[in-house]
Amino acid sequence: MIKKIKELAKKQERIIANFSYLTLFQVFALAIPLLIYPYVIKIVGVSNWGRVAFAQTLNIFFLLLTQFGLTLSATRQISLHRDDKEEIEKIFTAVYCIKAFFNLIGILILLAMVFLIPSLYEDRLMYILAFSLCVGDMLFPIWYFQGIEKMGYITVIRFIAKFIFLILIFLFIKEQQDYAYIPFLDGLGMIIAGALAMLFTYKKHFIRFRKVSLNYIMGFVKDSCFFFAADFIVALTTRLNLLLIKVFIGYDETAYYDLCYKLISLAKVPFMTLNQVLFPALSKSFNRNTFYKIVSGFAVASVSIYVGLLIFGKWAIWLLGREEMLPAKSLLNLLGIELPLSCVSALLGIVLASQNLNKNYMKADLYSFFIYAMPLLVIYLITGTLTITAMIICLLIAVLFTLIYKYNRILKNNLLAH
C-alpha cells in the first residue's frame, strides 16, 4: 500500500508540487489582508474599512478588464507550446499588448466615473490609487508560470510583495483618514511583484518581446472573449452584493459582508488552487475516473470546511475584528453555503474550459447572473429596497444553477463517455 502511494506521488509529482506552491501563494494573498484586520479596524474604524472594501470590490471589475480572460486562454497556449520558444515569445508579446490596451481603457473609465458620480468623487483619491493593483496585474505574467507549470516562482515573488504590503500598512496607516491609502499600498506590492516577475523571465528564461501581427493579437482577443465575459459575469454575481449593500444599507454592513467574503475565499484556496494546477494537465488529457474522484473529493472537503465555519466562525470573526465585527457571524452562516457549491461549480467550469468549450463556459455564468439579478430586481421594484438576506439567497440559487448547468454540459458533450 505504501509502495503504491509512493508510486502515485512520484507520477503526480509536478501536480503535487504546483498545488503546494499555488496554495501557499493564495494563502499569503488572502491571509495577510486578514492579519492586518485587527490593526486596520482599530485605526480607521468599521465604517472607513467599509469604504476600502467597496473600493477594492469596484476595482475587481477593472482588474478583470485588464486580464481580459487571458489568465486561462494564455495559460492554455503556453502549456500547448511550452517547447517552442519562438511561439512563447509571440504569445508573451500579444498578451502584454492586450493587457496594456485594456489597462488604459480601464483607467479612462475609472476617471470618468469618479469625476461624474458624486458618491465616488468624495473618495476619488482612494479609487484612483487603488487602480495601481491593475497596473501590477498587467505586469505580472502569472499565466506564463502556470502554463509552464512552475508555480514556485509565483509563490516566492508574490510572498515578497505581500510582505512588503504588510510592512507598509504598519508604517503608513497611523490615523483614521489614512484609510484612503490602503488599496494603494496593496497595489504597490503588486507592481513590485510584477516588475520582479518580468525581470525573472527576461534574465532566467531569456524571454524577449518580438514583432507580432495585429491579426495574431486579435486572435488572442477573440479566444479570450468568452473567458472575459464569463469572469466578468461571475464577478457581477459574486461581488455585486457588496456594492449593493453599500448603496442600500451602509458602510458598516459592507465591512461585515467583506469579512465574511474574505473568510470564505480563504477557505476556497485549496480548491481554486487545484483548479489552476489541473487546468494545463486537463488541456492535454482528460480522464473520466480521475474526474469523478476529484469532484467527490471537492464535495466532501468543502462541506467539511463549511461545518468548520459554522462551529468556529464566531471565534474567527472576534479574533480578526473583536466585538465590533461580531454582527458578521449570522451573515457567515448563510453565505458559507456558497462555499461547497462554488468549489464544485468552478471545477466543472475548468473542465469545460480545458476542452475548449468556451461558449458553454460563458453561458453557464451568463444564465446564472440573470437568475441572481432578476429576483433582486423584482424585490426592489416591489419593496423599494433590498436586504442582505435576500441578496445572499439569490446568490445561492444562482450558484446552484451554475453547478447543475455545467455538469449537464459536460454530459451533453460526452466528456464522461469513456
SSE layout and pairing:
Layout: H1 2-11, H2 13-35, H3 37-44, H4 46-67, H5 70-80, H6 85-116, H7 118-121, H8 124-130, H9 132-139, H10 142-147, H11 151-172, H12 182-203, H13 214-248, H14 251-284, H15 288-321, H16 328-335, H17 338-354, H18 358-383, H19 388-412
Would you give an account of this structure?
The chain has one domain. It has 19 helices and no strands. α3 (about 35-45) packs across α4 (about 45-65) and α5 (about 70-80) packs antiparallel against α13 (about 215-250). With about 425 residues, it is mainly α. The model is unreliable at about 1-10 (pLDDT under 50).
Jot down its keywords:
418 residues, 85% helix, 19 helices, disordered N terminus, mainly alpha
Short characterization:
With 418 residues, the chain is mostly helical.
Tally of individual domains: 1
Estimate percent helicity. Answer: over 70%
**What is the mean pLDDT?**
81
Radius of gyration: 21 Å
What is the string of helix and strand elements? HHHHHHHHHHHHHHHHHHH
Distance between the termini: 27 Å
Shape by Cα distribution: globular
The major β-sheet equals: none
Low-confidence stretches: 1-9
Number of helices: 19
State which percent range the strand residues make up: under 5%
- Protein structure class: mainly alpha
